[in-house]
Amino acid sequence: MKKKLTVFALCGMGLMAEAQERFYGLVKDEHGLPLPFASVTLLNNNTSYMSDRSGNFDFDVQARDSIRIKVVYLGKQSATLNFPREQPPARKTIVLRDLSLKLEEVNILPDVNDKGRSNSSIQIDRQAIDQLQAFSLVDVMNALPGKKTVPLDLNSLSTLTLRGGGLSGSAFDLNNSQGIAIIIDDMRLSNDANLQTRGLSRGGLNGSTITSYGYRDSYFGNKGVQSYDTPFQGIDLRDIPVNNIEKIEVIQGIAPARYGEVTNGAVIVDRQAGKSPYVASFNINGGSTSSSISKGFLLSPKWGALNFSTNWTYSNADPKDKVKSFHRYSQSMLWTNVFGKVKNTLSFDYTGRNDSRRQDPDDNSLRSSKFTNNTFSFNNRMGIQIGQTWMKNLKVNSSISLGKQESYASYAINRGLTPIASLDTTGIYEGKYVVLSTMTEELIIGKPVTAAINLSANGEAQSGEVQHNFNYGISFNYSNNGGQGVVSDPERPRLIGSNQQNLRPYSFEYIPSSKNWSAYIEDQVNITLGKRTLSNQIGLRYDVQNGYGTLQPRINSRLQWNKHWTFTGALGIASKAPSLAQLYPGPTYIDYDLITASTGGVDPSLYLLYTDKIQIDNSKLKPSKSLQIEFGVVHNNRWFNSSLYAYYKKNSAGFYATTNLRRYELPQYTVWLNETTNKFEYAPTGATLVTGGFIDHQLTNGLSSESYGFEWYLSTPKIPAIATSFSLNTSYSYTKATNAVNEAVTPANRIYFDDNRYIKTLYYEPSRESAKSLLSKFNTVTHFSRIGFIINFSLDINILNQSNTLSSSDPVAYLTDNIRYHKLTADEANTAPFNTLIRQTKDSKKVNTPFVYTTMNMGFEKEIRKNFRVNMRVYNLLDLRPYKLTTLDNGIDNIFNPNTKPSLTIGTTLKF
Q1: Minimal CA–CA distance to 535: which of 254, 118, 49?
Q2: Pick from 65, 381, 581, 617: most CB atoms within 10 A?
Q3: How far apart are CA 473 and CA 92, in angstroms?
Q4: Are strands 265-270 and 180-184 parallel, antiparallel or unpaired?
Q5: Over pLDDT 70: what percentage of the chain?
Q6: How far from chain centre, in Å, is Cα 383?
């Protein structure tokens, strides 16, 4: 029996272990010099390697396989190469040419191809980033198919939304943005420790951050109140410079199982290390400038390569008054080395951002605000070639990020004699009166700390005709914030009695840390079906987020029917953990006045009040989830390339803030002034004051949405006769979303009943809304390679942009002033006064683009002697500004004016 088992095991191992060969390669530049530390990716299994100090690299391959690799080096044009089966495989030399506009093939547009990590991935390389003259990652993301081209605006917060985003209800877009992972050098930028909020329970998802006051923008005109903190959404993309980025991949479909926190997609940023000349660049647009310099050094043979990059960006909203400004300074350093079979890259990054609004001399209230974010991060990536069948390579990636965030706002007030509450516990007590004529301040100080470690490995196996390339790994993520928190001086309160809520100091040091972990396994299975090849990327991920486990199967399949046609299919589930700000909101203090008495001054005076300290517990919040299905068809021929992807996406358990009903029965008092002591005295009357309402907020998993859509990419190769290529991208999306709780609205005027009671709050059915959009982007790229000159013409064709309110506008319940809840019957809803309290008129429930409109843009780029470039990009070249005024049934004027005036960016790049 034992012999039979041994024979069976050996046979099984023979099935799994196919004969292997060693593939050897050498990476050189066009002058014949070796390129050390080049990134070499074996596309057969998406495994990355690195050339050594002499430009050599090697790895194991299956003997029966053709070999497909992609080689990338800093400042060089990347190369994707296919090598047929050879016995034995010969040593290959790969030559990379300098990035130059004098190359025959130059790609300056986002590209969809089969080299990505997902079927419908969008690739953006260095030349495309340069052509966009991007001041930050914002400008690159605005170039994506389906995104409307907009002018530069560094003075407004900017996060990213992908499939399922764009709804008018901001809570949906907050969730969409939060579920997009920004991954730099294989590590996710985490926003989970961001606590820059007064507390979610106080103002909900949209009303709890400190805001900046309005300002004048010389381009956009008057700007209203702005928020610059993102505790409940994704990363502010203005914080990410692009001067040291080699490639960006955007995943809108199903991400591989190795990536977590990707309910709505991922943006994967790759940076390269290696020898490079000094590269200095400068861009200017109105009151905005951006400067950067970078250099790559080869150290001694034993010490590898060192790269550094510095960027400074400044924007003044209106150079005439210099009231609102944006500053960003970033510094990065990468050290790369190879130690035998070990490659290691250590990176250090610092980013400092300052959104400042100075006091306007014409503003008597002396309003000012300042929002700063300083982050230090360390990232180490280590790869070890093991060489075993079940573990070809082992990767150990670790990172830690230390930040300091400050949000500050102040203004002058002169309220005179004002009652002040200060107790931080529940009860009835005496406050005090102060003469409030001062500069009031509000300050939140956070010190977010995030850390992560990822262990992953890959292996290969063969079972009959089926080839398996598998990888697996585990990861751990940690988030904490030990900042000073909400800093508030009770003697100088900035906000008084806002919905009975008053601010108290609160330290973030008391907030628990968050610890999440995950494990995954993935198999890339290539099956030959006659002359056809079926590639399946099948993975399973398990995340434990806030104590809840989520199993997440994911699959990307690609069937190459022949050399012209390919069919794709994908399905996947993903989850996103709640952040610290969502799990552990600060306490809310509800203050009700019981006695307010004075003789016109501080002494004598009496202020008696009741304070209710409410500590909301969101610690049982579950992760949000998404399910997505995608199908595609790809056609390539000598005349054009076409890719069409259709998708269905369902988001569930999204984060939504509901309001809690509070009912208080408080004693009433009589008060008098004691002439002898000159003090106010009081006594209970026996009567009771009933008050309360929907005041504080609590987070639930109450949001859900469904999205359908397609994305069609059509492009031609360069036509030699006119040196021009053409492309057309069309994106259609339909999203329907709902939340799980009734909407509460306070009537503008009191509505009394016969018993002298009045309506305090009206309730409408849970919000249900939908949005449709259809946008085409037409591009031409004229490239004169002999003289190094490119002209890019782009046209946004905005065909459809429609939003609908699907929920009923009729009230379904109401709350009276004695805090009694009444649900309306159908007959009651159709009688006065409720039949007149509709929330929206019929025509305001549907907002649509009145006509098709376009935005025309153009970019120019000229290279001189390969070391100097001049760029120019114009938004809205012909100053097309469509306009239409519509008056709704409720008398409100709806103005349609989508385009702004032309915007010009000029830039230069110098290599030396």
Answers
A1: 118
A2: 581
A3: 31
A4: parallel
A5: 95
A6: 29
